[in-house]
Design goal:
The protein is built from twelve helices and six strands. α1 runs antiparallel to α4, α4 crosses α11 and α6 runs antiparallel to α7. The strands form two sheets. The protein has a three-stranded antiparallel beta sheet. Strands 2-5-4 form a three-stranded antiparallel beta sheet, with no helix packed on it. With 277 residues, it is α+β, with helices and mostly antiparallel strands.
Length: 277
């Protein structure tokens, strides 16, 4: 299934708006000098407590802020390619195709458990454990009312970044407490199929640690100077459901796109297909 809206892949400059690329190219020299200064300041702060307490601003910081402000305004009408990594049963894949992605809610998660239990796909003992202890309604409840995404295709190659998400049904909010529970872990690892839900998220809807414009700037600088190559995963989230027309594709284990997007065959823990539907 393919969406109808063109979206920006933060790692592919061919998908970036021409206006964005022109602005970054026009101001590259100043942005590059500012990034070098920032790198130098970071090193000073690592070794000198004085700089930690009195961190100076790079000389071109104001110029950088102005450029990012213009990029932010131009990005508002656009969507970003994003990847939700999970395990889904066949009927859950169909649900995503028809209804989109729901945010994490207690009732929604409990209904997923009950549905599998009623179909004989989850033992009652495991279902009860998941209901009684999870990260939905306890101190880890900051996962509530959100859906998380990888914003970088690079992260899809990393077992450290997405291996657990693709290996256990239910998402972190359900499996986090049971990775050392052999009964529950075995069931969660047998349910569903590893899937990458590729979505196109409107920029105003997306929350992330680095703004979209900062991510594009980082990628642009790295493409011109390897010293700025950044390998940390870009993670974003939304706090309202994603409509089905914003689902670009659903890639499942064994399909050509899934295989080309991941390096799972090289991972320490191998991904497995569903035990049931």
């Amino acid at each position: 299934m393919t969406g109808n809206i063109e979206s920006i892949d933060i790692e592919d400059q061919n998908t970036w708006p021409v206006q964005i690329l022109a602005e970054l190219d026009l101001h590259f020299d100043v942005l590059h000098k500012n990034a070098l200064a920032e790198m130098h300041i970071n090193k000073l702060c690592e070794i000198d407590a004085h700089y930690q307490r009195n961190r100076p601003d790079p000389i071109h910081a104001r110029h950088r802020i102005d450029v990012l402000g213009r990029l932010n305004a131009w990005l508002q009408p656009h969507c970003i390619d994003a990847f939700h990594c999970t395990r889904l049963t066949d009927f859950e894949i169909e649900d995503v195709r028809l209804s989109g992605l729901n945010t994490l809610e207690l009732d929604f998660a409990l209904n997923r458990i009950t549905r599998l239990e009623s179909k004989g796909m989850m033992p009652a003992s495991v279902a009860e454990k998941l209901r009684s202890k999870n990260a939905i309604s306890n101190r880890h409840g900051d996962r509530l009312t959100q859906v998380c995404f990888m914003l970088s295709r690079h992260s899809l190659k990393s077992e450290e970044d997405i291996g657990a998400l693709l290996s256990q049904w239910g998402g972190e909010a359900l499996y986090w407490a049971y990775e050392s529970d052999p009964e529950v872990s075995a069931v969660l690892r047998s349910l569903g199929t590893p899937c990458i839900v590729q979505a196109q998220i409107p920029v105003p809807m997306l929350e992330n640690y680095d703004s979209v414009e900062e991510m594009l700037l980082s990628k642009f600088l790295a493409s011109r100077d390897a010293a700025f190559a950044n390998t940390h995963p870009h993670v974003g989230r939304i706090r309202s459901p994603l409509a089905p027309e914003q689902i670009k594709a659903i890639h499942s284990l064994g399909e050509p796109d899934f295989e080309s997007m991941t390096d799972h065959q090289k991972w320490r823990r191998k991904l497995v297909f569903r035990a049931g539907t």
